[in-house]
């Protein structure tokens, strides 16, 4: 279960602690944290552990403490952004539940426990495909994946290998799973639902939760780009902090598909727009294959424009709020999405909005945010042509409302929460902060989980 290449690790992959019962939790947690030999001191470890213990007891209040009550923690930390995570689990009889501590520095450089994750839902969010991979120093990766699978049993092993930074092995497992799915399904590949893009051709398999994206051979106006530039954008996203708002893409070459699984409409689209990427092999019949020379595979999401058209009033409002928050998170990560149309954003299984169309993204610091100059006369203002010069990377936030706020329901929710996205000053101020070296705090878990907010609520209550 814990071995890779049939070699035993020189030291255990996780540490086990035995509090005896729930009452011995705080002392055990202190010992657990001390085992990592962290060099910086804590601001107030006893205070943080007191709240940690209280929250764990609350989470276990409906269960009876078993005689083999245990706590396990992986031996090394998971790093991402400004946070280090202690990945642990609580063993209470036959029940296994997450115990994840998020450690950060305060402004003085002292350590704090920023939050504790005690549910699979919280854990899924920090292991989402919209986040950057963790940095983990581990001797036997398979043991770490086995440990995490006990907490995330529905997460494919391929995704877990990706999330701990072993993407090549993750891609191998993903491809094996894909081939297995093809053998045990009969539906056909089709053109993916939604508005068709100018740059990418996207198709999917209804029974499979991923989409396949190919760069087209040619791009109609107004697109001015190239295959190499688009691939560079996808590589930028792969290496950049995705802050929970940009979908991960798996890049593959020379992927063979059974030809008889493609609808005629999809084949016609592929041959018209992506002929240079196609190669037919094998004899005609069930053994014939279509080899695609280069493609990206991403987790399927509901296009945001479809959610805003077909959703309930509550879903529309939440989608618009999430959309604005997604843009602001990307801004904080020094990313300007380029094309802000709703069709370029998707809604994940957990209701979060993420961006997935990367051909026009730019660094915020490379963009020139401008106010629209005052028109010299009424005739110029009424003209279809701008009366001012526009360079390649000029951005005019005042114009966003023209193509984003046509729907009354969308406009109401947008102006209530994200009116600042239509203001030049907002964008320029964020760009200035980035250039000054300020790194924003973006948390992959709910603000309600953070200890600072819990302490504030406790003080207000008192």
- Rg, rounded, reads 25 Å
Largest sheet: 7 strands, antiparallel
Proportion of residues in β-strands: 15-25%
Q: Count the helices. How many? A: 15
Multimerization state: single chain
Give the total of beta strands.
20
- Ends: how far apart? 49 Å
The low-confidence parts are: 1-6
General description of the model:
By secondary structure, the protein is of the alpha+beta class. The chain is 35% helix and 21% strand. It contains 15 helices and 20 strands. It has helices at 25-34, 45-59, 120-126, 141-151, 157-163, 167-183, 227-239, 264-273, 304-310, 313-332, 378-382, 400-404, 408-418, 424-435, 451-461, and strands at 14-17, 70-74, 78-80, 83-92, 95-105, 111-117, 135-136, 190-191, 200-204, 210-215, 249-258, 278-281, 289-299, 302-303, 335-336, 345-347, 353-355, 362-363, 368-369, 394-395. The strands form 5 sheets. Strands 1, 2, 3, 4, 5, 6 and 7 form a 7-stranded antiparallel beta sheet that branches. Strands 8, 9, 10, 11, 12 and 13 form a 6-stranded antiparallel beta sheet that branches. It has a 3-stranded antiparallel beta sheet with strand order 14-16-17. Strand 5 and strand 6 (111-117) form a beta hairpin. Helix 5 packs antiparallel against helix 6 and helix 10 packs across helix 13. The longest helix has 20 residues, at 313-332. The radius of gyration is 25 Å and the shape is globular. The two termini are 49 Å apart. Mean pLDDT is 91; it is low at 1-6.
């Amino acid at each position: 279960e814990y071995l890779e290449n049939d070699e035993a690790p020189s030291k255990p992959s996780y540490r086990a602690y035995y509090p005896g019962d729930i009452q011995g939790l705080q002392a055990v947690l202190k010992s657990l944290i001390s085992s990592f030999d962290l060099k910086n001191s804590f601001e107030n470890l006893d205070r943080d552990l007191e709240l940690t213990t209280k929250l764990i007891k609350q989470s276990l209040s409906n269960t009876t403490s078993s005689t083999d009550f245990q706590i396990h923690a992986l031996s090394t930390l998971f790093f991402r952004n400004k946070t280090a995570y202690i990945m642990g689990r609580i063993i209470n009889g036959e029940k296994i539940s997450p115990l994840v501590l998020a450690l950060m520095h305060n402004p003085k450089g002292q350590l704090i426990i920023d939050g504790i994750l005690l549910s699979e839902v919280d854990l899924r969010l920090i292991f989402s495909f919209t986040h950057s991979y963790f940095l983990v120093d581990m001797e036997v990766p398979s043991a770490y994946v086995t440990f995490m699978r006990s907490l995330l049993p529905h997460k494919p092993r391929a995704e877990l290998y990706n999330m701990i930074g072993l993407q090549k092995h993750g891609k191998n497992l993903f491809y094996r799973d894909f081939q297995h799915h093809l053998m045990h399904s009969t539906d056909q590949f089709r053109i993916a639902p939604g508005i068709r893009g100018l740059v990418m051709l996207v198709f999917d398999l209804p029974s499979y939760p991923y989409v396949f994206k190919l760069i087209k051979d040619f791009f109609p106006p107004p697109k001015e780009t190239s295959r190499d530039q688009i691939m560079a954008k996808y590589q930028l996203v792969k290496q950049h902090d995705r802050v929970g708002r940009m979908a991960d893409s798996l890049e593959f070459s020379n992927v063979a598909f059974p030809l008889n699984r493609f609808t005629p409409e999809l084949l016609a689209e592929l041959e018209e727009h992506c002929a240079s990427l196609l190669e037919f092999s094998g004899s005609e019949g069930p053994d014939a294959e279509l080899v695609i020379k280069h493609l990206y595979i991403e987790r399927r999401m509901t296009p945001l424009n479809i959610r805003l058209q077909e959703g309930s009033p509550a879903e529309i409002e939440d989608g618009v709020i999430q959309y604005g928050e997604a843009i602001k998170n990307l801004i904080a990560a020094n990313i300007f999405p380029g094309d802000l149309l709703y069709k370029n954003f998707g809604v994940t299984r957990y209701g979060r909005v993420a961006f997935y169309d990367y051909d026009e993204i730019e660094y915020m610091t490379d963009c020139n945010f401008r106010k629209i100059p005052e028109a010299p006369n009424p005739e110029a203002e009424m003209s279809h042509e701008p009366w001012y010069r526009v360079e390649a990377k000029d951005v005019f936030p005042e114009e966003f409302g023209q193509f984003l706020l046509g729907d009354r329901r969308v406009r109401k929710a947008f102006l209530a929460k994200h009116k600042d996205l239509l203001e030049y000053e907002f964008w320029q101020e964020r760009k200035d902060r980035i250039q000054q070296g300020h790194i924003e705090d973006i948390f992959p878990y709910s603000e309600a989980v953070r200890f600072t907010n819990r302490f504030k609520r406790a003080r207000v209550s008192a």
